[in-house]
């Protein structure tokens, strides 16, 4: 059975406490107060039905409990402003009303949260019962109790009927408006799916209901209960959303017409008011229960239909996925076969109990041409004699432990060619728990073995070359790590090659020395040319000559450094002796002449004096300006001649008089 307003049920997100939502809530709160007074023809006073209770309860049940205190603070402030501003009541009365309404709604929502959870939706009979107890019983009772205590404390007294009207009015507002707001929010995402025909049908139906209600409540006859069949019709035909909307429509007619003195309860007495409020509460709860009983099977059928549709959709997807997986599997097998052929790999399956072997592909690349008769010997007899014992031992160990092994061994083909292969074994146990099948992927690694052998030979040649150098020699990568050293380098650091490889100069020398060496390495790689450095060693008695050459990669960029270290202490000592002897011979020659020899710096000061110009002490003459030694009458000419010689880059020749220390010519 479908309803006029049947729409999809969704789980809405919790209502966030944000400024736009708070502003809309506060304006709606004030608007409902004014609307309720207009319905009751009672401006400035309380309304017949407290619609704000329904709004407040709907907001709490749509929000997370951690935001309830914020919503309560908003209601408290709004209620105080309404009571003092619209009702012209005192601040004490405002605080009393705000506190009672806040406490009642908070208590009812807390009970619903404990019994049902958040966010709350009205779909089942259990939901209706929990909601009714929280909003029509507990919440108004707490609100009335708080208001009674505060009123008594401030000296206000009300009759029993006043308190009962306070209770029923609060309960009626919550029972009528809160379910409508919750249902609207619950179905909000699916309004676009309602067809125009459904909208027209709903509009026609509600118009008819409004006409019937008008007729019922304009007669001064006990016709109020004639509205119950309409409630039943709404529950059966309109669903939960339509039922809550009809109850809101019924509340509008009852309150408005009762305020106008129409209908069976048109006399404005407290008893009549209580009957209107009680009728709305009882009718609202009954309508919600009836709608839940009727709609719940419909929702179950709808959920079942959706589940079946989803199941069919998933089955179709699964079927398509399986077909696609089979296609990909076939392609993968074909590609794997091509890859096995290209990589010279074959899968060998050995059935252990029968000692039979199956190959995934043509094994001729592995075993060689078929011998006469086309029957190969047992595979173990084609394993190289030097590797056969290790092959059999490893295979038996895998069988005993049910754990595969990886093994490199040689195979001798029928044509005598020897291949290196690598086998990865996997064991499968039989029903008795013992190894039943051994599956191995066997790949030709002859090329890799040949490369490894070539690399070993290359490393051996490099090692022999480095060890043949009498000087200390090494190779470094671009980051300064040693990648090869000779025996002299091992002796120099008193460490074996294994402990030097991978280290940097920072691991072996002081920080200052390491920084200097690293700067030299970077300079060599940056310039791209060989460079030689001479330095005195840390002990101060040893001189070394270090030659560094950049190593270039395939792209022409430096990838490392090759270097040698040579002790040149003896050579340095010989050079120093030769230099000293040369200087002594030069000085003897100069002293034997009658010429004075001196050197000027760029500022004209005497920086070096081999032989005195005026016979004065050499220490006295050093760092003096040479013009100070020229006679005052000859200084201008001497200076001009000097500038001319510097400018023309020619020899300086000039005759002038010289002054001694005493100023004599």
End-to-end separation in angstroms reads 140 Å
Q: Give the helix level as a range of percent.
A: 55-70%
* Strand-pairing-aware structural class: alpha+beta
Strand neighbour order, sheet with most strands: 2-1-5-4-3
Q: Identify low-pLDDT runs.
A: none
Notes on the structure:
It is a single chain. It is built from 18 helices and twelve strands. β4 (418-429) and β5 (435-444) form a beta hairpin. Strands 2-1-5-4-3 form a five-stranded antiparallel β-sheet, with helices on both faces. A five-stranded antiparallel β-sheet has the order 7-6-10-9-8. The radius of gyration is 54 Å and the shape is flat. By secondary structure, it is of the alpha+beta class.
Provide a compact summary of the structure.
Helices cover 56% and strands 12% of the residues. It has 665 residues and is of the alpha+beta class.
């Amino acid at each position: 059975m479908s309803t006029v307003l049947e729409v999809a049920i969704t789980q809405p997100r919790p209502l966030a406490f944000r400024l736009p939502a708070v502003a809309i809530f506060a304006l709606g709160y004030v608007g409902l107060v004014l609307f309720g007074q207009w319905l009751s023809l009672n401006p400035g006073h309380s309304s017949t039905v407290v619609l704000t209770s329904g709004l407040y309860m709907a907001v709490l049940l749509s929000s997370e409990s951690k935001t309830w205190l914020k919503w309560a603070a908003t209601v408290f402030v709004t209620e105080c402003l309404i009571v003092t501003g619209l009702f012209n009541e005192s601040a004490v009365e405002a605080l009393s009303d705000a506190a009672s309404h806040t406490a009642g709604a908070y208590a009812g929502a807390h009970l619903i949260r404990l019994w049902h959870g958040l966010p709350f939706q009205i779909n089942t009979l259990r939901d209706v019962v929990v909601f009714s107890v929280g909003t029509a019983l507990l919440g108004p009772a707490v609100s009335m109790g708080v208001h009674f205590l505060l009123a008594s404390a401030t000296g206000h007294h009300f009759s029993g009927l006043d308190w009962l009207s306070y209770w029923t009015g609060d309960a009626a507002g919550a029972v009528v408006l809160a379910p409508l707001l919750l249902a609207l929010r619950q179905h909000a995402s699916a309004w676009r799916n309602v067809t125009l025909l459904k909208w027209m049908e709903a509009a026609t139906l509600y118009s008819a209901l409004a006409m019937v209600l008008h007729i019922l409540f304009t007669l001064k006859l006990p016709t109020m209960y004639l509205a119950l069949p309409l409630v039943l019709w709404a529950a059966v035909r309109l669903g939960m959303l339509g039922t809550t909307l009809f109850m809101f429509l019924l509340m509008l007619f009852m309150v408005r017409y009762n305020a106008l003195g129409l209908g069976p309860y048109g006399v404005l007495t407290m008893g009549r008011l209580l009957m209107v409020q009680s009728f709305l509460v009882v009718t609202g709860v009954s309508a919600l229960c009836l709608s839940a009983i009727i709609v719940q099977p419909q929702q179950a059928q709808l959920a079942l239909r959706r589940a079946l549709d989803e199941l069919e959709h998933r089955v179709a997807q699964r079927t398509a996925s399986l077909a696609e997986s089979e296609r990909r599997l076939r392609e993968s097998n074909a590609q794997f076969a091509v890859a096995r052929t290209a990589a010279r790999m074959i899968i060998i399956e050995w059935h252990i109990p029968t000692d039979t072997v199956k190959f995934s592909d043509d094994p001729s690349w592995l075993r060689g041409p078929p011998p006469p008769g086309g029957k190969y010997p047992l595979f173990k007899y084609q394993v190289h004699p030097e590797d056969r014992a290790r092959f059999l031992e490893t295979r038996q160990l895998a069988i005993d432990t049910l754990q595969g092994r990886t093994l490199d061994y040689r195979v001798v083909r029928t044509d005598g060619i020897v291949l290196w292969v690598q086998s990865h074994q996997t064991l499968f146990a039989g029903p008795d728990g013992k190894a039943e099948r051994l599956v191995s992927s066997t790949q030709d690694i002859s090329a890799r073995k040949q490369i490894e052998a070539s690399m070993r030979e290359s490393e051996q040649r490099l090692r022999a070359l480095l060890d043949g150098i009498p000087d200390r020699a090494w190779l470094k990568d671009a980051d300064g790590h040693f990648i090869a050293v000779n025996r002299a380098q091992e002796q120099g650091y008193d460490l074996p090659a294994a402990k030097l490889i991978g280290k940097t100069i920072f691991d072996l020398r002081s920080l200052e020395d390491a920084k200097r060496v690293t700067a030299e390495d970077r300079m060599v790689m940056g310039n791209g040319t060989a460079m030689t450095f001479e330095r005195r060693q840390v002990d101060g008695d040893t001189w070394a000559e270090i030659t560094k050459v950049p190593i270039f990669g395939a792209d022409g960029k430096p990838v490392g450094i090759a270097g040698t270290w040579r002790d040149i202490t003896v050579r340095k000592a010989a050079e120093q002796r030769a230099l000293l002897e040369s200087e002594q011979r030069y000085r003897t020659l100069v002293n034997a002449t009658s010429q004075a020899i001196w050197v000027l710096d760029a500022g004209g000061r005497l920086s070096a004096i081999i032989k005195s110009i005026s016979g004065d002490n050499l220490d006295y003459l050093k760092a003096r300006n040479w013009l100070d030694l020229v006679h005052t009458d000859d200084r201008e000419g001497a200076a001009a001649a000097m500038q001319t010689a510097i400018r023309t880059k020619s020899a300086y020749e000039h005759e002038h008089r010289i002054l001694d220390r005493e100023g004599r010519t």
